[in-house]
Write a structure and sequence with these properties.
There is one protein chain. The chain contains two helices and no strands. By secondary structure, it is mainly α. It has one domain. This is DUF3450 family protein. Keywords: Coiled coil, Membrane, Signal, Transmembrane, Transmembrane helix. It comes from Paenibacillus campinasensis.
């Protein structure tokens, strides 16, 4: 019981001491301390709202991060598909180039054969004409 009485007395004394110090500093300090106390309570009461805003911002950022991860995954898959398409197109281009080269070689071969045939035909006709001319000349002198 004595301990309770001592505790109550100690509390009362410390409360009076704090109140005395506050009132002795003057009215300006009291109003400033009350204003500061009011602002502190106001800021403290606004903390849950700020915490909620921070949580919402964090959740929004997480959603954006997840969306970015999904986009990156989608781009990687698309990149792999495009790389495969590129490989197939490269093979097709090589095949087409080889086919074009073979076609050019065949065209060159045909051109060579045709020119050779024309040259042989012209040579045959020129040779025949020269032989006929030569035979006519020799026949004229013999007569």
């Amino acid at each position: 019981m004595r301990d309770r009485w001592r505790m109550k007395t100690l509390r009362l004394f410390s409360t009076l001491l704090v109140a005395g110090i506050a009132f002795s500093a003057g009215e300006r300090t009291v109003s400033a301390s009350l204003g500061g106390f009011y602002n502190g309570i106001k800021q403290f009461s606004e903390l849950p709202q700020e915490v909620n805003e921070l949580k919402e911002g964090y959740n929004h950022t997480l959603q954006e991060l997840e969306q970015a991860r999904n986009d990156v995954k989608q781009f990687q898959e698309q990149n792999a598909e495009l790389a495969e398409q590129n490989r197939k197109l490269t093979e097709m281009v090589l095949e087409l180039q080889q086919a074009e080269m073979a076609r050019k070689q065949n065209a060159e071969r045909i051109k060579t054969v045709v020119l050779t045939a024309i040259g042989l035909a012209l040579g045959y006709f020129v040779l025949i004409r020269a032989l006929r001319f030569g035979m006519r000349r020799t026949n004229r002198y013999r007569r």
